[in-house]
Amino acid sequence: MVTILDGGLSNALEARGQDVSGALWTARLLDESPEEIAAVHRTYFAAGADVATTASYQASVPGFVAAGMTETYATELLRRSVRIAREVAAEAPGRLVAASIGPYGAYLADGSEYRGRYGVDAATLRDFHAPRLALLETEDPDLIAVETIPDIEEAEVLVDLLDDIGLPVWFSYSCAGTRTRAGQPLADALALAAEVRSVVAVGVNCCDPADVPAAIELATATGEPAVVYPNSGETWTASPEGGDWTGSPHFRPGEALGWVRAGAAYVGGCCRVGPEEIARIAAEASRAG
To answer: Domain Hcy-binding: where (predicted)?
Structure first.
C-alpha cells in the first residue's frame, strides 16, 4: 500500500498570497495566520494526500525567540503546528499527521540544509533537536518526519534521539546524486537511518527528481521501505536577501508510478510541488494498486 504525502507548504502558501520570506519562513504563519496553514492542509487532503506535514520544519524555540517572541510563546507555536494539522485531519477520517523535524541548517536560514557541515559539535545539535522533538511528541502526531538532513553527522545525533521517541518515523536526506549534500555516500546515510527502532521508511526529499530512482534502490537495500518526495527540480540559491529558486522545473508526476513499483511506500513532493501534482501522484499510485 502506498501512502501519499503532501507537497510544498511554502509554495502553497505563496499561491494563497502569503509572504514566507524571512528567517522563520512558513513557521511565521503559525503566529500570524494559522488559518492559512490549515487551509493548505485541507487543499492537499482534497488533492489526495494521506498525510499532512506540519509547519514545524523551520520552527524552533531559539528561532522564535530570536524573532522577538517569549520562550513560552515559542513553545506554544511549536505545539500549535501539530494541533492545526490534527484538527484538519479530523475532518477527513483516515488522514495522518507527520510532525516535521527539519535540519539545524533550516534554523540558520542560510541555505546550509543543502550543504551540511555546520561547524558545530554534536552537543549543539543535540541541544537544538531534543527539545523540539519532545515538544512535538506531546501533541501526539501520527508520525515524525525527519526531513532534508544533509549530513551523516547530524543524522547520528537524530538517530540517538529518535530511539527515545515512541512514534513511527520516516527519515529522509537531501542529496545530490548518490551522496548526501555534505558529500557522504547516501547508502551509508540510509543504513544509519534504518537503525532507528521505530523507522517506517528511509529515503530522500527536496532533491532533483532525477535522483529518486537511485535513492529508492539504496533505501530498499537497507530492508526498509523508501520515502521519496523531490522538489520541482529547480535549485535553491541562498543570499543575504533570503535567496531564490533558479532553473527550470522538471518534476513529472507520471514518474511516481515507477517509483512505487521500485519500492517507494511513501511518495509526494517537496518545494515547488503543489496540489495539482499531488493529485496526479495519487492517481498514479492508484494505478500501481
So the answer is: 1-285
- 207 marked among binding-site residues: no
* Residues found in the chain: 289
Range of the domain at 18: 3-287
> What are the CA-CA distances from residue 52 to residues 36, 145, 192 (Å)?
14, 10, 26
Instruction: Please name the residue ranges forming H helices in 48-103.
Output: 61-66, 71-89
d(C-alpha 144, C-alpha 166), whole Å: 10
Residue 64 belongs to domain with CATH number: 3.20.20.330
- pLDDT bin (cut points 50, 70, 90) of residue 145 is very high
Taking a C-beta distance cutoff of 8 angstroms, is the pair 232, 255 a contact? no
Percentage above 90 pLDDT, the chain? 83
Mean pLDDT of the region 129-154: 97
Q: Which of 9, 99, 95, 10 has its CA nearest to residue 49? A: 95
Residues 6+ apart with CB under 8 A from 246: 234, 235, 237
Residue 289 cell numbers, joined = 494498486
The overall average pLDDT reported for the chain is 94
User: Domain count of the chain?
Assistant: 1
236 has a pLDDT exceeding 80: no
